[in-house]
Specification:
By secondary structure, the protein is mainly α. Helix content is about 70%, strand content about 0%. It has eleven helices and no strands. It has helices spanning about 1-10, 15-40, 45-55, 60-70, 80-95, 95-105, 120, 125-150, 155-185, 195-210, 215-240.
């Protein structure tokens, strides 16, 4: 029966890696429910959803920081960005101290820092850092459309202000993702905390695209992004892996043509 076959696959460990990915996805879905409650200022319910998400994956801890961003809505300005930039540099510089504190709070992760695993743990990739930076530049450029909407729409100004606040919150989440990506260059284990900011940054990009009023321009931007994503995956998942793909998996068959 299918259930017996599934049990055998599970018992032999064949589904462990996919299940780890599924745990992270379930965690993101639950965090999204929490963020919906946060948008409606139902803070207790949003925290409860984050706690439930934490039972699936520890990366959901990032959701608490995101809820704080939803609550306080920090202003997007050059001054605030510079402050975050300086703070991020300090965090990266003193990362070993912060890592030691983190391991004291979560001692079960100490197993990853044995001598036999240090090479793997310490190796990180700069690719996601570049992706987050590119997302930020793109989204920050189109923020002007939301600001213009607030200034020009008198009949729906309240709604326009709300849309700008949500957009700015997503922009700050992207900035937080930049910091995590920078830390993951030093410690690849930080990648597990990158999934949620990356997911939210993708939502940010779609909002930026939909803020473009001209349909022709919007279509051209969509096509340009599609080309960039396929090009990125071709280099990152095919060329960089010597034609074998990541873990032997190639995302598109035409890469081999």
């Amino acid at each position: 029966s299918p259930l017996t076959a599934l049990f055998l696959l599970y018992g032999m460990g064949c589904l462990f890696n996919p299940m780890n990915i599924l745990r992270a996805i379930f965690s993101v879905v639950l965090c999204m429910l929490a963020f919906e409650r946060a948008e409606d200022q139902k803070w207790a319910k949003s925290i409860i959803w984050i706690l439930v998400a934490l039972t699936f994956h520890t990366s959901a801890i990032i959701g608490i920081i995101i809820i704080i961003l939803f609550k306080y809505k920090p202003k997007v300005s050059v001054k605030n960005m510079l402050k975050i930039g300086l703070l991020s540099i300090a965090v990266v510089k003193e990362f070993d101290i912060l890592l030691d504190i983190g391991l004291r709070l979560l001692p079960r992760y100490e197993v990853y820092f044995g001598q036999d695993k240090m090479g793997y743990v310490k190796s990180g990739s700069i690719s996601y850092f570049i992706v987050f930076i590119a997302f930020f530049i793109f989204a920050y450029y189109f923020r002007k459309n939301f600001v213009l909407e607030v200034k020009s729409s008198e009949d729906r100004q309240g709604e326009a202000i709300r849309e700008l606040e949500i957009y700015d919150t997503l922009l700050w989440i992207n900035v937080f993702g930049i910091v995590i990506a920078a830390l993951s260059v030093q410690l690849s284990l930080m990648n597990r905390f990158m999934f949620l900011p990356l997911f939210m940054s993708c939502i940010l990009i779609t909002k930026a695209i939909h803020s473009i009023k001209n349909p022709g321009t919007r279509l051209l931007v969509y096509l340009a992004i599609i080309v960039c994503v396929i090009g990125y995956s071709y280099i990152y998942l095919y060329v960089a892996e010597n034609g074998f793909g990541r873990d032997g998996v190639v995302p598109y068959l035409f890469y081999k043509m």
